[in-house]
């Protein structure tokens, strides 16, 4: 396997989503249900490697694989919870093991 191919297969995009918990709408549970459907589809497609809920329950950490940072940013905007965001941070990572 060439070096560039190795890099691409080891590349991950980490997205940290923080929600604005002071402005949660009444239909929040419906949003959560739709959110779960979206991330389940990404998992099925093989582009979402991991999803961690933050212990403080004010957001999540998502690890994408096989997509560029631009694509990860685009995907994040399609999340139902994205509209409730306080912030989103992105980090390019290289998996070592």
In brief, what are we looking at here?
The chain has helices at residues 3-10, 28-45, 69-76; strands at 11-19, 48-53, 59-65, 85-94. It has one domain (11-94): Alpha-Beta Plaits (2-Layer Sandwich), CATH 3.30.70.1060.
Overview of this protein structure:
- The chain is an alpha+beta fold and 97 residues long.
- The protein has one domain (11-94): Dimeric alpha+beta barrel (Alpha-Beta Plaits, 2-Layer Sandwich), CATH 3.30.70.
- Helix content is 35%, strand content 33%.
- It has three helices and four strands; from the N terminus they run αβαββαβ.
- The protein has helices spanning 3-10, 28-45, 69-76, and strands spanning 11-19, 48-53, 59-65, 85-94.
- The chain has a four-stranded antiparallel β-sheet with strand order 2-3-1-4.
What's the helix and strand layout?
Layout: H1 3-10, E1 11-19, H2 28-45, E2 48-53, E3 59-65, H3 69-76, E4 85-94
Antiparallel strand pairs: 1-3, 1-4, 2-3
């Amino acid at each position: 396997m060439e070096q560039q191919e190795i890099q691409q297969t080891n590349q991950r995009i980490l997205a940290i989503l923080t929600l604005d918990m002071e402005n949660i709408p009444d239909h929040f549970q419906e949003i959560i249900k739709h959110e779960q459907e979206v991330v389940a589809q990404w998992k099925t497609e093989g582009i979402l490697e991991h999803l961690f809920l933050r212990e403080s329950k004010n957001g999540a950490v998502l690890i994408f694989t096989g997509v560029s940072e631009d694509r990860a940013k685009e995907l994040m905007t399609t999340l139902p919870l994205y509209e409730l965001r306080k912030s989103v941070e992105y980090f390019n990572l290289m998996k070592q093991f």
